């Protein structure tokens, strides 16, 4: 039984949506605890009409907590998750720190729910750009086995949390009056710009964000043979990541079949009518929980290739919604 729930990082970009999702989806817990840093201690957050005070994330905070959803930076997750588990909580963590640990299942509930059955107190939610891509790949993989993916991302500034969104606004305002706002969260000014670097240099010229897309995709789909070539780009959009995806499959599938597979898969909405200018765009997908797919077409450069465009709200399915769905799954199975 999961009676007491803690939201760790409740004051952040993702934590706020976790709270929204918990209210909307009506999860059957009895008590809620909100945890964050010293900066937020004592702040009041309204939840289902009740004011709850934010408490300090520190050892001892999980003594009566059954389930915790963590949305903190990696280094904070590295520290708090072990003592939360020791104090008796099961942790669903959204940071990147635990995802590739072989003992930690990495879950997208529509794709690999059964992996959640075997955990040692920690379950991880994938990186935002990985989640939406893997949701879109899953129906194709189930029928035709995905062998290779070439993906370019167009990632929103809220992917870097509240400071990322603020920096976009400051950068645009400064640019409009001919000034440059000194970048802090990003490597360069983001207003009226694109930055082809998310994360740090990691492997053979790929960034840490790009390598997350490689390793996490293979782990979730349970297939180390899937080849992924990603390019991750930060764009001046506040919310909603977009991805141009080229996928090659072992078995040929037609565009019509791919469209039917997308349409039948839980969590995917197809918006695909080019003659009438209909395709997914971040401004239309913001605030929604689905992964949106459009521009579905044959890859004219490859015999077994399908090309498509994929958009999802990174704070929702890319983060909070997926974590709350994992919590829901655990509660249903307890
Ligand atoms: N943004 C996305 O699209 C997205 C998608 C998938 C995964 N994630 C992951 O989710 C996590 C949170 O991201 P975010 O975008 O919500 O970041 P954020 O807006 O910067 O929020 C960070 C949260 O962590 C808390 N925190 C920071 N330092 C802390 C400390 N020393 N002790 C306790 N709490 C601390 C903050 O509390 P204070 O307010 O008190 O500082 C805040 O609640 C990150 O690991 C990120 O990689 C984000």
Automatic annotation (TrEMBL):
Pfam families: Semialdhyde_dh, Semialdhyde_dhC. Pathway: Amino-acid biosynthesis; L-methionine biosynthesis via de novo pathway; L-homoserine from L-aspartate: step 2/3; Amino-acid biosynthesis; L-lysine biosynthesis via DAP pathway; (S)-tetrahydrodipicolinate from L-aspartate: step 2/4; Amino-acid biosynthesis; L-threonine biosynthesis; L-threonine from L-aspartate: step 2/5. GO terms for molecular function: aspartate-semialdehyde dehydrogenase activity; NAD binding; NADP binding; protein dimerization activity. Residues 4-119 form the Semialdehyde dehydrogenase NAD-binding domain. CDD domains: ASADH_C_bac_euk_like, VcASADH2_like_N. Substrate binds at residues 155, 234. Catalyzes the NADPH-dependent formation of L-aspartate-semialdehyde (L-ASA) by the reductive dephosphorylation of L-aspartyl-4-phosphate. This is Aspartate-semialdehyde dehydrogenase. It comes from Novipirellula herctigrandis. The gene is asd2.
């Amino acid at each position: 039984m999961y009676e007491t729930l803690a939201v760790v990082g409740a004051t952040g970009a993702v934590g706020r949506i976790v709270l929204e999702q918990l209210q909307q989806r009506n999860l059957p817990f009895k008590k809620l605890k909100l945890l964050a840093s010293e900066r937020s201690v004592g702040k009041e957050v309204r939840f289902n009409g009740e004011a709850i005070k934010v408490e300090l994330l520190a050892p001892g905070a999980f003594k009566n907590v059954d389930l915790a959803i963590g949305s903190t930076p990696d280094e904070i997750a590295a520290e708090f998750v072990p003592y939360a588990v020791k104090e008796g909580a099961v942790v669903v963590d959204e940071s990147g720190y635990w995802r590739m640990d072989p003992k930690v299942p990495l879950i997208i509930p529509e794709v690999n729910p059964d992996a959640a059955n075997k955990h040692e107190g920690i379950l991880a939610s994938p990186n935002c750009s990985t989640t939406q891509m893997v949701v879109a790949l899953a129906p194709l993989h189930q029928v035709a086995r995905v062998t290779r993916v070439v993906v370019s991302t167009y990632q929103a500034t809220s992917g870097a949390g509240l400071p990322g969104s603020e920096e976009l606004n400051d950068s645009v305002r400064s640019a409009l009056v001919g000034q440059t706002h000194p970048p802090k969260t990003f490597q360069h000014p983001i207003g009226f710009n694109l930055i082809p670097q998310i994360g740090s240099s990691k492997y053979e010229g790929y960034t840490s964000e790009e390598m997350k897309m490689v390793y996490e995709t293979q782990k979730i789909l349970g297939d180390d043979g899937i080849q992924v070539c990603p390019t991750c780009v930060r764009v001046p959009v506040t919310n909603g990541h977009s991805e141009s995806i080229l996928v090659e499959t072992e078995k040929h599938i037609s565009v019509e079949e791919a469209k039917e597979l997308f349409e039948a898969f839980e969590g995917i909405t197809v918006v695909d009518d080019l003659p009438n200018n209909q395709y997914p765009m971040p401004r239309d997908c913001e605030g929604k929980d689905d992964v949106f797919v459009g521009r579905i077409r044959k890859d004219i450069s490859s015999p077994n290739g399908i090309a498509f465009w994929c958009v999802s709200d990174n704070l929702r399915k890319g983060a909070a919604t997926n974590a709350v769905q994992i919590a829901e799954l655990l509660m249903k199975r307890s």
